[in-house]
Amino acid sequence: MAVKATHLLRLPAHGAGVDERDRAPAYPRAMAPPPPRRRNDGILSDPIDLDGPRNPRVQHPVVPARAGLVVKQRGTPISGVVVGVVNGYLHVKDRRGFEHRMTMLKGGFEVDGRIVTLVEPRGVTPGTPAAAPQRTASGSVAVPGAPAQVARASRILVEGLHDAELVEKVWGDDLRVEGVVVEQLEGADHLDQVVRSFAPKAGRRLGILLDHLVDGSKESRIAATVEHPHVVVCGHPYIDIWQAVKPGVLGIAAWPEVPRGEPWKEGVLRRLGVDAEPWQFWKQLLGRVSSWTELEPPLIGAVEELIDFVTEPPGA
After folding, report:
1. Number of domains composing the chain
2. Which long-range contacts (CB under 8 A, 24 or more apart) does 290-293 make?
3. Whether residues 293 and 236 fall in one domain
């Protein structure tokens, strides 16, 4: 009988003919040590401090709250000029003449666009305002020796002589530095003609201050006829510019009420018991005004808005 040849796989004898690299280890190899743990691996890498870090990473610059410094309170629309620090509170006057009392929180203010922490200036006696630089009658920081600028093409118009004299008395220094001229309207009845003849345009703006600018008044109807992108009409609610001076300047509680139809200035003098012509009384009243603090806030806000408008750079 024929026998088929069968190819059998012969395994080598133990320990012979086998590469040691192919032999399975008798025991598992030792594992490589884990990589070292990184520190500060996120907010959960360390215990949570519920009271916040003792040394916060963000340190805001510390700025002395000296009078005249322009600041903005973060989180509110309030900005203005520092008046001083009284009893640990910051006092700031805004553009409309209102004074605000603020707490000086860390990082609570902005100066020139930077977040800062305001502190009471050194050398100031507690309970008294910070030593103030020289200021103009309007409350602005004075610029000693600054020459008057060449007059701008833009103008501010006021109704009459008394209005012009009061604006000059309080804002004159500011207007000279800015190169702004104030002119008289001699009444507002012809306001539309004045605007057309002035020919406002970019760089040649017109700001107009009117008395008694309240709903339903003649002045409000006149103001409504002026519509021009380079003209702004502002005003105050008082019948006459005299009323924009606080009555306390005269030592009275309020200006007298004068019935409609009676000449207002003469009626006021009669009720005050003053035997003088209106122009004589006005000279005495104007002489008692030394700063913006003796004026009513609506007038202050109106004049400040007009100055900002006519001094704004073209294209702004």
Report:
1. 2
2. 290/137, 291/137, 291/138, 291/139, 291/170, 292/97, 292/137, 292/138, 292/139, 292/170, 293/139
3. yes
303 in the same domain as 159: yes
Q: Both 176 and 224 in a single domain?
A: yes
Residue 122: CB partners within 8 Å, gap ≥ 6? 64
**Does a structural domain hold residue 20?**
no
Q: Residue 103 — φ and ψ, nearest 5°?
A: -85, 135
pLDDT digits (tens, 9 = 90+) for 52-85: 455 556 788 999 998 888 899 999 988 888 888 8
Residue 316, pLDDT above cutoff 80: no
**pLDDT score at 9:** 45
pLDDT digits (tens, 9 = 90+) for 80-108: 888 888 888 898 888 777 788 899 999 99
CB 67 within 8 A of CB 131: yes
Q: Which residue has the tokens 């002395």?
A: 64
Print the domain residue range for 216.
155-311
Contacts made by residues 260-268, CB under 8 angstroms, sequence distance 24+: 264/239, 264/240, 265/240, 268/242
